[in-house]
Amino acid sequence: AQPDPQAGAAVKAADRAHVFHSWSAQELIDPLAVAGAEGAYFWDYDGNRYLDLTSGLVYTNVGYQHPKVVTAVQEQAARLTTFAPAFAVEARSEAARLIAERTPGDLDRIFFTNGGADAVEHAVRMARLHTGRPKVLSAYRSYHGGTQQAINMTGDPRRWASDHGSAGVVHFWAPFLYRSRFYAETEEQECARALEHLETTIAFEGPQTVAALVLETVPGTAGIMVPPPGYLAGVRELCDKYGIVFVLDEVMAGFGRTGEWFAADLFGVVPDLMTFAKGVNSGYVPLGGVAISGEIAETFARRPYPGGLTYSGHPLACAAAVATIGVMAEEGVVENAARLGADVVGPALRELAERHPSVGEVRGVGMFWALELVRNRETREPLVPYNATGEANAPMAAFAAAAKAHGVWPFVNMNRTHVVPPCNVTEAELKEGLAALDAALSVADTFTE
Ligand code: PLP
């Protein structure tokens, strides 16, 4: 498309006058006006094109404007745009069947929501009703969504302003060797000590009070900390021992992101409930849900489940899911994420770490990678303080600006940059992105000591 700065200015002006943006001080932001997007790229009205290393908010797993998904949404709109959730509708039935076919174990019943946060809300409600217990355990360094229960479960600073009004949430530390809470020096120690800490937490809270334990299979926004071997299996055992419903939140990690359909498959664990959203239909139309085990489904076989949403299983969103899952299967998108993660991204990021003193650690799997940027590799002092804003965040802002100047839109959270492009990204696109990161890291290096 031809650049059209005037059109861009009008879009920006109306945004600035009327759109109230998430998580932001409204006068301190400067949103880019986006003119279009395709595949792994988007562009503005001034003729700048960016390779999107963020997949939006880590959800466009098949890229922007995939023609098969766009066509499926158009065809569904022409046939039956919407229909209330109490009815059986083809797109909804088919989406549920395709999801259930891929979820681990007997997670074969699908409750559809509008996104991730409400999926987490409903998973917790199901667990409380199933067990008759009140509490929920969740991890620090986590994100579970912006609604009241989900934000209270979140273990990052976005929770602080809302830390009231949702009783019974208890946070614990999950394993993270690079910044170990357990003085561990090996993955084995970190794993064993994290499990011991969790069991002690359960004991001191009173196991009979704990309904659910909720974990991101691989924590996403909090830093892509792939859990050590044995950790999730150990959590599964503790949940079984104490009758706690084990919920895996796969809103970000699911649908190909880790190079498996679900991250749970990397570890061979089966939770009792699993939440999903984002990648289920690459976010073309809002959709999320909870996959439910046979045992928990049985609780609501003859007793009504007290929850619902007007748009539960919206036909447009479900048609997008059917098409997205079809594309992922036909085009080998999950395999692509696994292969390019192992063969291209992982080795390239480790090579960057050797040359750039600002890189403290590289970690990840599939199309789900994090670089932990530090001021000092020995002390591991983060490049910016925890939850830094304004001047204190200047090094990360400079890093991001440099990446954008090189045509790449980076994912930045606190002192980390995440490499999370669409799961169907090509090797050539990745190389372009990695070259821009290389240049931007040289800017981050200037803040090291
Ligand atoms: N859970 C996880 C792991 C997430 O990453 C997110 C969003 O980033 C959510 C839940 C919330 O999803 P949503 O923003 O669709 O409500």
Note down, in words, how this protein is organized.
- By secondary structure, this protein is an alpha/beta fold.
- It folds into two domains: 5-62 and 332-445, Aspartate Aminotransferase, domain 1, CATH 3.90.1150; 67-330, Type I PLP-dependent aspartate aminotransferase-like (Major domain) (Aspartate Aminotransferase, domain 2, 3-Layer(aba) Sandwich), CATH 3.40.640.
- It is 40% helix and 17% strand.
- The protein has 14 helices and 16 strands.
- The strands form three sheets. It has a seven-stranded mixed sheet, sandwiched between helices. Strands 11, 12, 13, 15 and 16 form a five-stranded antiparallel sheet that branches. The protein has a four-stranded mixed sheet with strand order 1-2-3-14.
- It is globular and about 60 Å long.
- The termini are far apart.
Question: What's the short version?
Answer:
The protein is an alpha/beta fold. Helices cover about 40% and strands about 15% of the residues.
CATH superfamily label of the largest domain: Type I PLP-dependent aspartate aminotransferase-like (Major domain)
Largest sheet: 7 strands, mixed
What's the CATH class of the largest domain, please? Alpha Beta
Secondary structural class: alpha/beta
In terms of quaternary structure, what is this?
Answer: single chain
Number-wise, the strands total: 16
